[in-house]
Amino acid sequence: MAYDAMNDVNDDALMVLYANGDQNAARSLTYRHAPKVLALSRRLLADRAEAEDVAQDAMLRLWKVAPDWRQGEAKVSTWLYRVASNLCIDRLRKKKGANLDDIPEPADDKPSVEARMLTKDRARALQTAMAQLPIRQRLAVTLRHIEELNNPQIAEIMEISIEAVESLTARGKRTLAGLLLGQKEKLGLE
Amino acid sequence: MKNKPETNLDMELASFFDAAKDTAPTPGADFMEAVAADAHGQTKERIKTYRRPQSTIHPLARLLRNIGGWQSVATMTACGCIGIFAGYSAPSSLAYFSNNEQAAEMLNDDSFSVASDIETLFQEG
Question: Is the ipTM of this complex over 0.90?
Fold first, then answer.
């Protein structure tokens, strides 16, 4: 099947096609999921090279599991987020806290230079504050408020209850507020 | 700060989260190519595994495997040795049967004459 024709094909079907050797299906899955996995990894690890390693590793695990993929059991996106989160948590535990100097420069955007600078500054401030959070709070807040997943999805990814997700995000946000709201004026928010 | 309702916190942090979403890292072409190459590599690996010829196993090794491995061969060899040993060093009780006259004598022994006794009994009524 041609790559363009796969836009409407669901992930489970793409997994079957890939398991049967269809490289266009793999390409489609890559374009659909790799950017999200990379974004999550980069937010958690605050290091581009490491995030790319983790995202590539997570995608490689997806290719390996494809022949045994059981349709309807888990969503590909949820499965990938879970694998990437676990890989990131492993790395963060080994590193014992991200190096704040490594926090990435946010990508360039289209708006005016001043607006762009403010957006970058806010993103950077958030990233710095996020680095202060315990790993699981950081993951829960990222998945909920940046990746915009709902609580049941996050609970599935983190393999915890919905109540635990709510507790983690609430505690995380309280800490973030304490760290960030004092900088509002500096960041053009007042 | 601790008792602020969730919605207030969400509103106050919204601009920070929006900024993070707006500055989402975009994957480079190299990264995307590397991921696609991994997918291709895995497919090739799978094909290689499926097509691995069975003839890489030596015929004798396959025969050995089919008859149950070295354990079976060892058991059969042991049984064979015991058979040969029994054949060459026969127990003394077997000598009795090896002599035809003695065997015939044993068959004519009283213990085998029950049938004729019963016949006699029948004839006598």
Answer: no
